[in-house]
Amino acid sequence: MLKNKVFLTSTDTTIGFISQDSDRLNEIKQRSNEKKFIKALDSLDTLKAFTRVQSAHKKMLRRAKKTTFIIKDNSYRVVDDAHHLLLLGRLKWAYTTSANQSDKTYDEDFAKENADVIIYPLKEGKSTSVIYKLGKNNIKKIR
Fold first, then answer.
1. What is the pLDDT along the chain (143 residues), one digit of tens a residue?
2. Kind of pairing between the strands at 38-41 and 15-19
3. Cβ of 22: how many Cβ atoms within 10 Å?
4. Whole-angstrom Cα distance, residue 126 to residue 14?
5. What is the pTM assigned to this prediction?
6. What is the distance between the alpha carbons of residues 139 and 130, in angstroms, rounded to a whole number?
7. Structural domain of 57
8. ω into residue 121 within 30 of 0, thus cis?
9. CATH number, domain at 30?
């Protein structure tokens, strides 16, 4: 079953772990359960299942590339990268995080040892995502 698996793959921004099981990701990364993951989504329709987006922000959300949005204390990124969508198309959504232990750099051996499934090719992205916090009537750039 795909829901319990941890995948190692190239995401739209980096080499990362993808899973619908946040507890497994926390265990692998050795981090606190209080810290939330970004939910990578296959489409804007899937986003609608999780949250409501204010009308003032919809145009920005539709046009965004490699952009994470914080909406009501949860983080979402609608993915448009073809390689990343091969997996997300099957899952519809998944938690996404870099493939390293918390506060450590990427280690390919660590990443491969902790993944249930490795999706090749593994290639490092060139940029991190931009992060915006969307309020009812305002937008705040976080990164």
1. 677 899 999 888 889 999 999 999 999 999 988 889 999 999 999 999 999 998 889 899 899 888 999 999 999 999 988 888 889 999 999 999 999 988 888 889 999 999 999 998 888 766 778 999 998 888 899 98
2. unpaired
3. 16
4. 7
5. 0.89
6. 13
7. 2-141
8. yes
9. 3.90.870.10
